[in-house]
Amino acid sequence: MSLSLQPHRYALGVTLRRIALQPFSSLANVMVIALALAIPLLVSATLLSLQPVARQLSTDPELTVFTRVGTSTDIARSMAQRIEREYRSEVSNVRVITREEALAALKRNPSYADVLAVLPGNPLPDAIVVTLRGADLARRSPELADTWRKWEGVDMVQLDSAWVQRMEALLRFGNTALGLLAAVVAVSVLAAVFNTVRMQALSQREEITAARLVGATESFVRRPFLYLGALTCAVAAGVAIAASALAMGPLNGALADLAKSYGVEFFIQLPPPSWLLGFVMVVTLLGAFSARWSVTRTTRF
């Protein structure tokens, strides 16, 4: 086992010596990659932190089914039971607001009290408020509304389609923007590591040629460069996590007043350790891949 690890220990030692010989260049590469990684990391942390806040807000879309004026309240209650029974998987709550309850609520508002006082009767219908749940609400909500409009005794169905479309548009935008940002950062990391390893390989071309003349294998010569790319990206990922953690202090301070205006507590925090570990591993593998690609194209062993 020790013999199998010997080449890796040697390659790691060579990599660390090369980094020590060019500390400022190595530090600059790490900082450039770390700053590029910190941006999607902060965006991901923000999206993950928003999930529990979204659950606190009353954001479930609703459909309101209005019965015809003069229809018995028993029919509205029967419709509500039918919706609960037949659409159990698509609704989270169904409640009936009788015409008497609606009128009483309007009378409590001073703006409507005087107008309602001169009316000879109650002009309001019974209403069934249905709270939806699940995914793809922008598509399913109009379908449900069209189905319920055809029921006997239904006058109209009010669909909160604008809310649904805005919410799902925002979710799609966030996911798409994060994906594009991650792709741009990945290309930036590849380019930075590719160029760094290329310059290292060109500056040591004579040393590499001499090593090959004495019998060094391709793997033996390439291995230090792979460690250089992987180690640079691993350190950069760690710096990006630390920089993101520091940036969350002023960001959370700025967001505090905004969150209070919505009656919720919101603060950005780093993703869980398992997520961060996966982030570091992916970035490290990306650096190793870029280094191998660069050294293969540059030296043509």
Automatic annotation (TrEMBL):
Topological category with respect to the lipid bilayer: Multi-pass membrane protein
Any one Gene Ontology cellular component term annotated for this protein: plasma membrane
Record GO biological process: cell division
Transmembrane region(s): 27-50, 177-197, 225-248, 275-295
Record family assignment: Belongs to the ABC-4 integral membrane protein family. FtsX subfamily.
Primary subcellular site in the record, as a coarse category: membrane
Compartments, as annotated in UniProt: Cell inner membrane; Cell membrane
Function description: Part of the ABC transporter FtsEX involved in cellular division.
Name of this chain's protein: Cell division protein FtsX
Coiled-coil blocks: none
Keywords from the UniProt entry: Cell cycle, Cell division, Cell inner membrane, Cell membrane, Membrane, Transmembrane, Transmembrane helix
Entries under Pfam families matching the protein: FtsX, FtsX_ECD
Native source species: Pigmentiphaga aceris
FtsX extracellular domain mapped to chain residues: 62-157
Record-annotated ABC3 transporter permease C-terminal domain positions: 180-297
